[in-house]
Automatic annotation (TrEMBL):
This is AAA family ATPase. InterPro entries: AAA+_ATPase, AAA_14, DUF4143, P-loop_NTPase. It holds the Pfam family AAA_14. Residues 18-136 form the AAA+ ATPase domain. SUPFAM superfamilies: P-loop containing nucleoside triphosphate hydrolases. It comes from the Bacteria.
Amino acid sequence: MFNRSILHSLTKWSEKPHRKPLILRGARQVGKTTAVSILAESFEQYIYLNLELEEDRHLFEQGYTAQELFEAICFLKDKDPQKSQTLLFIDEIQSSPEAVAVLRYFYETLNHLHVIAAGSLLESLLDRHISFPVGRVEYLRMHPLSFEEFLVATEETQAVEMLHRIPLPAFAHDKLLKLFHRYTLIGGMPEVVQRYAESKNLAPLKSIYESLITAYLDDVEKYASKDSKAAVIRHVIQSAFHEAGNRIKMAGFGQSKYSSKDISEAMLVLEKALLLRRIYPVTSTQLPLTPNLKKSPKLQLLDTGLVNFFSGIQTEVFGSNDLNSLYGGRIIEHLVGQELLASHDSMLFSPYFWVREKRQSNAEVDFILAHRNNAIPIEVKSGATGRLRSLHSFIDHAEHHWAVRLYAGPLNVETVKTLAGKEYQLLNLPYFLAGQLEDYLDWFVQGK
């Protein structure tokens, strides 16, 4: 099971004439090795190194030149150093600072070689003062499978086709909504999706969820520099599943006695491992989107399926007809965040939300996206348009007249008035189209 958008990006990278070594970022078990292995099928020769293995790591500790190192790798792995189309994959590269340093020399002296490096804890090297080869490597981020990739994996071919029809035909709505609810329940972790695709049975998935979460907890000692830090990190992992989608405070997070500093440091480590991220609000209705780091962030975890399982709410998800009604809309909002992240493979992309906090007029819009020089507000909410008070508040302060509501209902565009009387265009979009939001914004803003 693999991420199709990442494979497309990997292929584009491999075909570039001025290609740099690629650092593939992603949490454990999101399919990095599988994606590279599939890419390798188009190469004459594929070499795989895992630097958690002493034999492989030892090669980088001998002080070889890049040419000598490559020849030593080929000798160890019984490969031909003369073959022109060779893909070298260095996995768990964070285990060897020397391997990170040598990437620049691969670029400078062996630029015919295709080099990909991966490591779920790569940024931990920054704390050890390791010099990254700035300007001589490229980065690509991997996520769990998106809804579209879930459909591909489960062989819902016609559903995938409908997902790309703009505007969505009305007849496709109910089936896509049902499939999206199933995706919400299962999530996008590749092993989980693969097992479901094979059996179409939810029962065998329990052991996979448990093994994934256990593996992340077991990794804590690798994340932590001290035993005391390990305890905080373990607490944050266990508590984060219950707080996913919520605005959080650092001090006392998860009903603990840990200080704001302790929790912030632990979350930073887990952000480096790409297991979670803190999404901060913006307070302006105009570009650029500048997060206010002094305000409380929302918590986004790696995968909504893991959140559902660990929080014990899979039964509620299974029986829901409208995800906005489940846990105050927290699960669907979290999954929309996951879909937005999956639709951007850049390390620099981050979703934001909007707040206006005053004594008697607080307002909060779930997501803000930069589109065509405008900050477009996006609410994940059911119910009548008159209840979209925060959206109205944003539009009253914005210089444009476009907004989006993600909900369980049908696709349509309507003209709405704010409480202050400003007219704007509201795109009501089924939430299963969150991954196609950029394309729909093009369609919407252009007035088609």
